């Protein structure tokens, strides 16, 4: 089974018509994962026994026409806690951690009777843009196994792009859904901050983190976002805004007619590859042909986003990661003489290099004598960046640009150089700082690797992004081009 | 190089963060952190006089709820994740260094 040929609606139709049972679909999914994962390394844990049992139960009950997700396989980034299913955040410090509850997004999919097939690889605690910071394995790009899949949701992206699963969930703190989606030629959304409950997402930067779906098509993505969104008493930053049926609106391939789109000149500036630039300019022409206006606009403080983010995100991380102390759960060092030793040695041995770097940067930024100059300054620059977006989105329906300055880079190429790695996020980070929705979708190829386009919208206006994404998809064929992983397709 | 943060300051920050580094790690980390902090300092180019801080972007204001105890009934499952537990308690080493004279 691979999911290159079928979207969620057609899988659902086959399940309802009993052309395939949930059990057969689940078994075929595991067979395919086992055949392809030695090349891709997308998964950290498979949930085979429980998934097959769940599929049996679904078959016994039957799948009705109003259960659009029942029996459909999903993969989950391994920083989403899953009851009785090992959850590691790709860290040695959580190597043997078995949560006692499901994240809200996970339980919503379970209630819709989706079948969790496994947990996908990531950069440790979602800190990184290549999955090379995983304590366990490096995932490979679905298009070229010498390239990184991006990150931090690299396992989820590669699993969807290689046809292992039709849907995966990721999380995005500074681009961790959108960039791997772009590098693998799939669709990913970072919803508006508060759209999806963060309950059960292992916290990294609490004012930035959002969970979102990764899929092969815009419509599938919209379907899953509607399923996981909504207010949750367990996360009081989750919004009480009504959740639209995002997919129901997607039927008009010309729906961008009359819309005003802003293309920030900073998004095509120095540092953005020519191939990426060309794809985005071509996409702008596609939108113009469909009757939209594309204006050059400016986000003058965009370039300060990376610095502000690495202060704010690392500060929040240094606070959130205090809970890993070797006492209640997770790794505890052996050779300890007293309680202080438990803390220091467990953390020093349990955390990987990038996580320690972020904890250090955050602790420094929050420490006495440096708080005003670094943390407070960054929090003010965050306001300035938000105001830039507000000014553009006042008279533009959405913003378009690249997701990342380059296509997927080589495994090992940037891992020794943190600042170069951090700069890869220059086009995605400001969206998290502002809490806006950002959609990543395939927009072409450069040197045979996918280029991703990013659409950025007003708060809680994912609908416009999906409509514009759908219109683009219907008028291009980039999303139909597939990696030739082992010649399987 | 290495003038924004020095080796001693890195060690101080590490102690605040309950981390420790070997000499070799400090040799690598100190200039790296110095470079990154240099990147942070580009923020001084942005005029933020009179600008409010943004600490969160949620559309929710303070949300109140009754303070009601909720028994999850999962203490056994929770304790399974503890590195060391006995009789319903998590075991930790002595707080005082055992090698010290008391």
Question: Short summary of the structure?
Answer:
Helices cover 37% and strands 13% of the residues of chain A. Chain A is of the alpha/beta class and 489 residues long.
Structural descriptors:
heterodimer; A: 489 residues; alpha/beta; 11-stranded mixed β-sheet; 15 helices; B: 102 residues; mainly alpha; flat
Give an account of the 3D structure.
The complex is a heterodimer of chains A (489) and B (102). Helices cover 37% and strands 13% of the residues of chain A. Chain A is of the alpha/beta class and 489 residues long. Chain A has an 11-stranded mixed beta sheet, with helices on both faces. Chain B contains 3 helices and 2 strands; from the N terminus they run H-H-H-E-E. In chain B, 15% of the residues are buried. Classes of the chains: A alpha/beta (489), B mainly alpha (102).
Which secondary structure elements does this structure contain, and how are they paired or packed?
The complex is a heterodimer of chains A (489) and B (102).
Chain A: H1 8-16, H2 22-40, E1 43-46, H3 48-61, E2 73-77, H4 104-111, E3 115-120, H5 154-161, E4 167-172, H6 178-184, E5 187-190, E6 210-215, H7 218-228, E7 260-264, H8 274-289, E8 293-297, H9 305-320, H10 339-350, H11 353-366, H12 372-394, E9 398-402, H13 418-423, H14 429-434, E10 438-446, E11 449-456, H15 462-474
Parallel strand pairs in A: 2-3, 2-4, 7-8, 7-9
Antiparallel strand pairs in A: 1-3, 4-6, 5-6, 5-10, 9-11, 10-11
Helix pairs in contact in A: 2-3, 5-6, 9-11, 9-12
Chain B: H1 7-16, H2 23-40, H3 75-80, E1 85-86, E2 89-90
Antiparallel strand pairs in B: 1-2
Succession of helices and strands of chain A: HHEHEHEHEHEEHEHEHHHHEHHEEH
Q: How many angstroms does the end-to-end distance of chain B come to? A: 46 Å
The major pleated sheet of chain B works out as:
2 strands, antiparallel
* Beta-strand proportion of chain A: 5-15%
């Amino acid at each position: 089974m691979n999911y290159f040929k079928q979207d969620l609606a057609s899988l659902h139709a086959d399940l309802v018509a009993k052309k395939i049972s949930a059990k057969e679909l689940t078994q075929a999914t595991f067979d395919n994962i086992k055949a392809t994962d030695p090349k891709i390394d997308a998964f950290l844990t498979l949930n085979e026994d429980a998934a097959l049992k769940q599929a049996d139960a679904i078959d016994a009950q039957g799948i009705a026409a109003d259960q659009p997700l029942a029996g459909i396989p999903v993969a989950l980034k391994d920083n989403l806690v899953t009851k009785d299913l090992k959850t590691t955040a790709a860290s040695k410090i959580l190597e043997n951690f078995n949560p006692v509850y499901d994240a809200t997004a996970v339980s919503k999919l379970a209630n819709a009777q989706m079948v969790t097939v496994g947990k996908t690889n990531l950069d440790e605690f979602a800190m990184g843009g290549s999955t090379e910071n995983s304590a366990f394995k490096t995932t490979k790009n679905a298009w070229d196994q010498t390239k990184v899949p991006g990150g931090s949701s690299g396992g989820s992206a590669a699993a969807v792009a290689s046809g292992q699963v039709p849907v995966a969930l990721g999380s995005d703190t500074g681009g961790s859904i959108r960039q791997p989606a772009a590098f693998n030629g799939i669709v990913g959304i970072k919803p508006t901050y508060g759209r999806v409950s963060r309950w059960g997402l292992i916290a990294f930067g609490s004012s930035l983190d959002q969970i979102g779906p990764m899929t092969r098509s815009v419509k599938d993505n919209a379907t899953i976002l509607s399923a996981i969104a909504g207010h949750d008493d367990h996360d009081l930053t989750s919004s009480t805004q009504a959740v639209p049926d995002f997919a129901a609106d997607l039927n008009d391939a010309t729906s961008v007619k009359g819309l005003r789109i802003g293309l920030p000149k900073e998004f095509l500036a120095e540092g953005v590859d020519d191939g990426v630039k060309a794809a985005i300019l071509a996409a702008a022409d596609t939108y113009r042909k469909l009757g939209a206006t594309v204006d050059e606009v400016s986000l003058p403080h965009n370039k300060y986003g990376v610095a502000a983010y690495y202060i704010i995100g690392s500060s929040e991380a240094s606070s959130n990661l205090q809970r890993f102390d070797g006492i209640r759960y997770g790794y505890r060092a052996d050779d300890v003489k007293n309680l202080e030793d438990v803390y220091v040695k467990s953390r020093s041995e349990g955390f990987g290099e990038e996580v320690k770097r972020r904890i250090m940067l955050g602790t420094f930024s929050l420490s006495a004598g440096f708080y005003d100059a670094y943390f407070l300054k960054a929090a003010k620059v965050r306001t300035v960046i938000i105001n830039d977006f507000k000014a553009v989105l006042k008279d533009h329906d959405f913003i378009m640009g690249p997701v990342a300055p380059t296509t997927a880079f080589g495994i090992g190429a940037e891992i020794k150089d943190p600042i170069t790695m951090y700069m890869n996020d220059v086009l995605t980070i400001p969206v998290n700082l502002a809490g806006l929705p950002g959609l990543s979708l395939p927009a072409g190829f450069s040197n045979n690797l996918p280029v991703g386009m990013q659409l950025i919208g007003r708060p809680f206006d994912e609908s416009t992004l999906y409509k514009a994404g759908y219109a683009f998809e219907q008028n291009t064929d980039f999303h139909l081009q597939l990696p030739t992983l082992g010649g399987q397709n | 190089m290495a003038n924004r943060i020095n080796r001693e300051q890195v060690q101080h920050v590490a102690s605040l963060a309950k981390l420790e580094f070997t000499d070799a790690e400090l040799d690598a980390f100190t200039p790296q952190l110095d470079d990154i902090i240099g990147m942070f300092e580009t923020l001084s180019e942005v005029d933020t006089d009179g600008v409010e801080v943004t600490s969160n972007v949620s559309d929710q204001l303070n949300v109140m709820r009754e303070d009601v105890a909720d028994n999850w009934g999962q203490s056994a499952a929770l304790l399974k994740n503890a590195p060391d537990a006995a009789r319903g308690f998590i075991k930790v080493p002595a707080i005082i260094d055992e090698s010290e004279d008391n």
